[in-house]
Amino acid sequence: MTAATITETAVSLRIDGRSVEVAEGSTIHAACVEAGIDTPTLCWAENLTPVNVCRVCVVEMEGSRALVPSCSRPVSDGMVIETDTPRVRHSRKMVLEFLGSGVDLSQADDLHRWMEAYGADPDRYGADDHPVERVEEPVKVQDELYIRDYSKCVLCYKCVEACGDDAQHTFAIAVAGRGFDARISTEFDVTLPDSACVYCGNCVGVCPTGALQFKTEYDLRQVGEWRPDDQSVTRTVCSYCGVGCNLDLHVQDERIVKVTSPSDHSVTSGHLCIKGRFGWQYVHGE
Amino acid sequence: MTDIYLGADRATEPEIAAVDAALRAGGIDPVVQPETERLYTSGRARRRERRHFLLPALHALQNMSGWISPGGINYVAEVLDVPPAEAFGVATFYDLFRTEAPSHEGDTFYVCVDAACQIAGYDDLAESVRASGGHVHLGPCLGQCERAPALFVQGSGGRRDYVPADEDPFVLPQAGDPSLRLLRRIGTADPDSLESYLAHGGYVALRRAGEMGAEAVLEAVADSGLSGRGGAAFPTGVKWRAVAAEGGRPKHVVANCDESEPGTFKDRIVMEHDPFAVIEAMTIAGLATGAANGWIYIRGEYPQATARLQGAIEAARAEGLLGPNSAGTGHDFDIAIWRGAGAYICGEETALFNSLEGFRGEPRNKPPFPTTHGLFGEPTAINNPETLLNVGDIIIEGPDAYRQRGTERSPGTKLLCLSGKVGRPGLYEVPFGTTLGTLLDLAGGVAGNGELQAVLMGGAAGSFVGPDSLGLPLTLEDTRAAGTTLGSGVVMVFDTSVDMTAVVVRIAEFFRDESCGQCVPCRVGAVRQHETLVQMQKRGSLSADRRALIDDMAEAMVDASICGLGHTAASAVRSALNLGLIQEAPAA
């Protein structure tokens, strides 16, 4: 089917008092993007199915008692949405505060501006004589390709989706446990080399907080040498097979330090295999 | 072979035999099917054929070995075509499953620590079990609040689960009262005998429904004003009609028997003592909605109710009252029982679907609603046993006569679970509109020191009311107007000798333990709320800024959580604070 034969029904709604028209089936979040309204997201990604678990993108919808997640709720004609009411701001602030109070967000760069914007203060929980429970896990370094630091994990489910139905269909990891004790895990927490993991690194590619990290990045951070501002990004095509995946080579001090793929690329949707993701050592003659 | 990576661990012979027996009982062959297509062809939908046997298979492993071993997971993963990481994720979701080798031999004794058992002294019970060498597991409400403190025994080594108190003679406080409707057969008819059920008016309603036809049944249920008795009070007629309107796909009737709200035991008593009534009402629901598949999802801690329902299904099937052309109605309908495994959240309807399907019991975002996308993504009418029980009378006596009881906006009668410091705890049935004071009098008044401090209405997800609420008419509209709820029918009584701080801290801990962990407001909010209250308990006071923090957290949980658990996690806590129940420092 060519683009010309697709008939898209337009839906019109109001967001923050403005009239917006988007295609039927779009989400409220997509409509916000269309209207130029910046919306925080954490568990949403353009190359994954929305799981609407983080709740940081909630908006007020006329006729709905509770707030609704903009990332997954489809628009309907005549919908009236507010994205900046006290209720919305409060819930967004609390979600960010809750996360900051329980896990290490130091490398979740995108969240910092939102925490500032909503006045989130993760330190207001507990007291000196009454520390709050936090997710404290030793870093899992089990191979030379990537590390898992679950004390930084916000349980956005993105890695599970990328490993499973949304990209790789390997199903090496799932959410295990319940409530605050829930963790991303292999079966019985076996090491990655003993699991179904095929080292595509697509989980690393979608992780928003640095809980999953290239070993190269982790090693450089350990010695204080991770310098994103000094890195260049070069787009190229993977040389291993004929599929034609685009690679973005992140280079620091003349060495590749990590490899990503643009999430809007028609071939990869941001996902790669082990060769494109991790097989660059030959460039340096190793 | 399946396209699933399995580790080196292998199941033992008894584990394999237990899983195979569970699968054969469910009608599927535990032989691994050769795969011609790989998982990516249709993902989740393709796995459905077998995946919903995951929960029964995990139960079989737990029962055989006392835990779910890596080899056991691998075997189940292989025969059901489920990735082992996902099977592990499911196993770790439930309180009744262990994924570490047990440190003790023999059965596990679950002792309830929730409010009714807390004030009845569960610690003495736990101590006596330990003294006799039993391994104690302290956990949430077991649905036996009228006989607190409650105990449930989980068998291992193939021994069955049981509840010691089931051996005691059953007492219905209102036995013999001619005004009883929903409870009229309880304690009178033999729950193990179809003949006895028939002699007490059983299956008259189904045959009548068959004569009336689906449309007339839908109309009668809608006209009766019947609404869901689980807490949300959604109109049953609207729900059924929406399912009936769906076509082209298999449809389902699910009985939500995962009664887990602390303080609630009504459905357990109904299922244990009138199981055929539940089966018959589900069959009527199948006829009315055009659904052929009936499912009972029952909490794992209800072994006697499970056994009686199973017996009732088999007896009904043998007499042609279930199965093809059920009871000569021309409609095909049959029922399967699925056991939960200890998770409050699985009483939430969409979490229940996920759990039954073999996924983690995490609620789905709504819309879409179960009437169009329910079990297996197909149209589903889901009701609890109490709601279903009303249908028989509506069919037999007609909606007008049904509406003679109760009030205009809350027609019919309501089952209420009386527990705590009350003269005669137990299950009661009164017309909607009966006042709280009248109900308490009916149940023998306030026990303990006789001075009423508070009543918990609707369970942990409900709210406390004070002694000034005795005149409150128990209807949906009056409780709502008073800022409280009937919820699932919990009426838990506290005299002035009870330390309410401890009760409220435990309620907060309950939500912390039972949050599924999916969404941030509930996963973290329930923990922070509990921590704040523990801090208050230790200090003996709650500062203004901590009080404001509790309100801040509550608003976010109400507004931004995915499901009702998060929406109500702060409800009882805030009502207790508002009533001043925990203002003063308790004795240190």
What order do the helices and strands come in, and which of them pair?
The complex is a heterodimer of chains A (286) and B (588).
Chain A: E1 10-15, E2 18-23, H1 28-34, E3 58-61, E4 68-69, E5 80-82, H2 86-102, H3 109-118, E6 146-148, H4 158-163, E7 174-176, E8 183-185, H5 202-206, E9 212-214, H6 215-222, E10 232-237, E11 246-252, E12 255-260, H7 274-278
Parallel strand pairs in A: 1-5
Antiparallel strand pairs in A: 1-2, 3-4, 3-5, 6-9, 7-8, 10-11, 11-12
Helix pairs in contact in A: 2-3
Chain B: H1 13-25, H2 44-51, H3 54-65, H4 70-80, H5 84-91, E1 108-112, H6 115-119, H7 122-131, E2 135-139, E3 151-154, H8 194-199, H9 204-212, H10 214-224, H11 236-244, E4 252-257, H12 266-273, H13 275-289, E5 293-298, H14 303-318, E6 334-339, H15 349-356, E7 380-383, H16 385-402, E8 413-420, E9 426-431, H17 436-442, E10 452-457, E11 463-465, H18 476-481, E12 490-495, H19 500-514, H20 520-539, H21 544-560, H22 564-568, H23 571-578
Parallel strand pairs in B: 1-2, 4-5, 4-7, 5-6, 8-12
Antiparallel strand pairs in B: 1-3, 8-9, 10-11, 10-12
Helix pairs in contact in B: 1-3, 3-4, 9-13, 9-16, 10-11, 10-13, 10-16, 12-13, 12-14, 13-14, 13-16, 19-20, 20-21
Structure characterization notes:
The complex is a heterodimer of chains A (286) and B (588). Chain A has 2 domains: 9-125, Ubiquitin-like (UB roll) (Roll); 146-284, ADC-like domains (N-terminal domain of TfIIb), CATH 2.20.25.90. Chain A contains 7 helices and 12 strands. The mean pLDDT of chain A is 95. In chain A, the strands form 4 sheets. Chain A has a 5-stranded mixed beta sheet with strand order 2-1-5-3-4, sandwiched between helices. In chain A, strands 10-11-12 form a 3-stranded antiparallel beta sheet. Chain A has a two-stranded antiparallel sheet with strand order 6-9. Chain A is α+β, with helices and mostly antiparallel strands and 286 residues long. Chain B has 588 residues and is an alpha/beta fold. Chain B has 5 domains: 13-91, Arc Repressor Mutant, subunit A (Orthogonal Bundle), CATH 1.10.10; 108-167, no CATH class; 194-402, NADH-ubiquinone oxidoreductase 51kDa subunit (Rossmann fold, 3-Layer(aba) Sandwich); 413-495, Ubiquitin-like (UB roll), CATH 3.10.20; 500-578, NADH-ubiquinone oxidoreductase 51kDa subunit, iron-sulphur binding domain (de novo design (two linked rop proteins), Up-down Bundle), CATH 1.20.1440. Helix content of chain B is 42%, strand content 11%. In chain B, the strands form 3 sheets. Chain B has a 5-stranded mixed beta sheet with strand order 9-8-12-10-11. A 4-stranded parallel beta sheet of chain B has the order 6-5-4-7, sandwiched between helices. Chain B has a 3-stranded mixed beta sheet with strand order 2-1-3, with helices on one face. In chain B, a hairpin with a 5-residue loop joins strand 10 and strand 11. In chain B, helix 10 (214-224) crosses helix 13 (275-289) and helix 20 (520-539) packs antiparallel against helix 21 (544-560). Residues 34-47 of chain B have low confidence and may be disordered. The interface between A and B is large, with 53 and 55 residues.
